[in-house]
Design brief:
With 676 residues, this protein is α/β, with parallel strands linked by helices. The chain is built from 21 helices and 12 strands. The chain binds zinc ion.
Length: 676
């Protein structure tokens, strides 16, 4: 079949025919599906960032396609080596199969793009898979076996080849879009040799109301309870965001989401907030930094802090996503690129080949704990240490392994990873309440699971670090099972989602304290700065809690029943702006302000979520109504007005469009760090 794939190229025919599926992916499927995905990308990134996102997607797909191309070619070369029957016939059949495969990719892409386009008008025709496959086979056979088909194939091949080459050009842009790596300027006269070590443990999706430490009925956190007996427990600590990226960015940058703008899952904090972040300050002041995370979205590299850390170990999960912290170090846009359909499709394919996850050890805390402890055991101690460990449980899937599984709900239901994924936001309201209760029990079991390892880790890490160590245990956000609202993200800012643990143990502290002060994640950086004796960064939005930790007397709770006593600390905020352009003015979303006993949740702009009820501002008296059952907005208009003004004032200061980045980050080249 000399005409089936043209005769002009110098590349041998077998290689050219086997390249057809590769060209279909890189030159047809990628540009078309990328175009359909442009709208969310433009929401989350600058227009110029489309270039490196495309280049990254191309690079990832090319890396996958190259071995596939070789594997597809080899049988054809083998079959063509012999001219005796039945090999020529088999070779021809293989060539036809390759053309049908390419046709399948193109037809599937066209159907996907058509459906997506229809979806923008709210329509869907839901083409059945059998129709797509049947159409693809018919098109493929026509292209392989008929003269007009072969002419069409040559045209498609030319388009695919041209677009593939253009994609390769986008790859050239990648070096220009790396993380900023300006030289690190150490602070003069700050060897830091006597400064305390710092251990920061963040636990994903750990809701304070679900911890026995915070009064939960189930004995979920016996180990953290024990740790807190020699530390200061903040009873009213809040996350500044309600999912991983903004929460972690707030902890590390000391700024709230309206400032750092890590508003969506695959994005990161602005350069200027990273350059004044806790890791940057610690590195400049002589610390040796290390981190281990089992959630790539909470990884230092994926969030752009990787350069400050001399040691990193992450991605130890068995999850097969391409959004990996290790890859992010070299490919800044890999998390975004992994959302492009052909790349995401590869993930699904690998999942399919891998089979459903067996057991429920997907995010075993030991994957993070053991490398962290090994690093501590061997690290050079000429400098003070900052070690940050992020554990994935009790993030969904909730199913914990034995012996924790079934501890709070012995039913045979919802016991594996496939059946303990939450229904996000208002989709939870579709579930029967009995199932919500089971899922909540599974979550609590997972809290107990992570508590076991967290307690063990803190003990062992303190043994290695010695007594001159500050330990902070907190969470990036919580998890919701009430108000018909599931999990986290979305506009929901209920207490279950944003009330997080915060436990601070000062060096040598042996007496447990509890503080009722209102505090938030952005207070962590200034607290640590004061403890180690360095000044706050000007753009930090929190305050040091060292005074609260050092106070010798507990607050007299009985005397604190009124606004005045509870209102002794400044108001704190929590927010979600995921449906805003990352760098644009913040016009839609939700902001909560907690002030004294009051909590106001303000919903802004036009929000789009499945099953979303009409949203109205909510005001709760948390001292009388901690479960947020009675909206006092109509009964307390003066309070509501005052709190609304607090939000408006902050939004006026920080909620506008981000015009220009003022400073460049000062992240060192980190050649000494081992690879994960
Ligand atoms: Zn999280």
């Amino acid at each position: 079949m000399p005409g089936e794939y043209g005769a002009s190229s110098t590349v041998p025919r077998a290689w050219r025919i086997a390249a057809l599926p590769v060209l279909a992916v890189l030159g047809i499927a990628l540009p078309l599906t990328f175009a359909t995905h442009t709208e969310p990308f433009l929401f989350e990134f600058r227009a110029i960032d489309l270039l490196p996102i495309y280049g990254t997607a191309w690079l990832v797909l090319a890396a996958i396609a190259l071995p596939v191309w070789i594997i597809l070619t080899l049988p054809l070369l083998a079959l063509e080596a012999s001219h005796r029957a039945p090999f020529p016939l088999l070779a021809r059949a293989w060539r036809v199969a390759l053309i049908v495969l390419a046709a399948l990719i193109v037809v599937e892409t066209l159907v996907y793009c058509f459906e997506t386009w229809l979806g923008t008008f709210g329509h869907s025709i839901g083409v059945p898979d059998a129709v797509v496959y049947g159409l693809a086979v018919a098109v493929g056979l026509a292209m392989a076996l008929t003269a007009p088909g072969r002419a069409g194939l040559r045209t498609v091949r030319s388009i695919g080849a041209a677009c593939t080459v253009m994609g390769a050009i986008a790859v050239v842009s990648l070096p220009a879009f790396g993380w900023h790596r300006a030289a690190l300027r150490p602070t003069a006269g700050s060897p830091g040799a006597n400064r305390p070590n710092i251990l920061l443990l963040s636990i994903d999706a750990l809701s304070a109301p679900h911890m026995s430490l915070y009064g939960a009925a189930r004995p979920t956190t016996p180990n953290l309870d024990a740790f807190a007996r020699e530390a200061t427990t903040f009873d009213r600590a809040y996350s500044d965001g309600n999912f991983t990226t903004p929460g972690i960015a707030s902890i590390l940058t000391g700024t709230r989401p309206w400032s750092h703008r890590a508003l969506q899952l695959p994005t990161w904090a602005l350069d200027r907030t990273r350059s004044t972040s806790l890791p940057a300050v610690l590195r400049r002041n002589g610390y040796r930094l290390g981190y281990v995370s089992t959630n790539a979205h909470a990884g230092g590299s994926a969030q752009g802090f990787g350069g400050y850390f001399q040691f990193a170990r992450t991605d130890r999960t068995q999850e097969l996503t391409l959004c990996r912290d290790g890859l992010s170090r070299h490919l800044r846009f890999v998390c975004a690129a992994s959302e492009v359909p052909p790349v995401a499709e590869f993930d699904h394919l690998v999942d399919l080949l891998h089979g459903p996850p067996r057991g429920n050890l997907l995010y075993d805390p030991r994957l993070a704990i053991e490398p962290a402890l090994a690093w501590l055991a061997g690290v050079d101690r000429d400098k003070p240490i900052f070690l940050w460990v992020h554990l994935f449980p009790p993030h969904s899937p909730y199913a914990a392994p034995e012996p924790w599984l079934g501890r709070f709900d012995s039913s045979p239901l919802d016991r594996d990873t496939a059946h303990t994924q939450p229904s996000w936001a208002w989709l939870l309201s579709r579930l029967p309440s009995s199932q919500v209760h089971t899922l909540e029990a599974r979550y609590d079991e997972s809290v107990t699971y992570v508590d076991h390892y967290a307690g063990d880790f803190v003990r062992r890490a303190q043994d290695l670090l010695g007594p001159n160590t500050v330990v902070i245990v907190t969470a990036d956000h919580g998890e919701s099972f009430g108000h018909g609202y599931g999990a986290h993200t979305g506009p929901g800012l209920y207490e279950e989602i944003i009330h997080v643990p915060l436990i601070v143990k000062l060096p040598g502290q042996t007496v447990g304290k509890r503080s009722e002060a209102l505090v938030e994640q952005v207070d962590i950086a200034p607290t640590l700065a004061e403890i180690i004796g360095v000044p706050d960064e000007a753009d930090w939005e929190g305050r040091s809690l060292l005074g609260e930790c050092s106070a010798t007397e507990l607050a007299d709770r009985s005397a604190a029943g009124d606004d005045q006593a509870l209102g002794a600390s400044p108001p704190v905020f929590s927010m979600n702006f995921e449906q805003n352009p990352r760098l644009g003015a913040l016009r839609t979303g939700s902001v909560a302000v907690m002030d004294g006993k009051w909590k106001l949740v303000h919903y802004m702009g036009v929000l789009h979520y499945p099953d979303m009820p009409p949203l109205h501002d909510e005001l709760y008296d948390l001292s009388a109504d901690p479960a947020e059952r009675v909206n006092r907005i109509a009964a307390e208009p003066v309070v509501a007005q005052r709190l609304r003004q607090l939000i408006d004032a902050e939004l006026a200061r920080r909620g506008g469009a981000v015009r220009k980045q003022r400073a460049t980050a000062q992240i060192p080249a980190d050649s000494s760090r081992p690879s994960p």
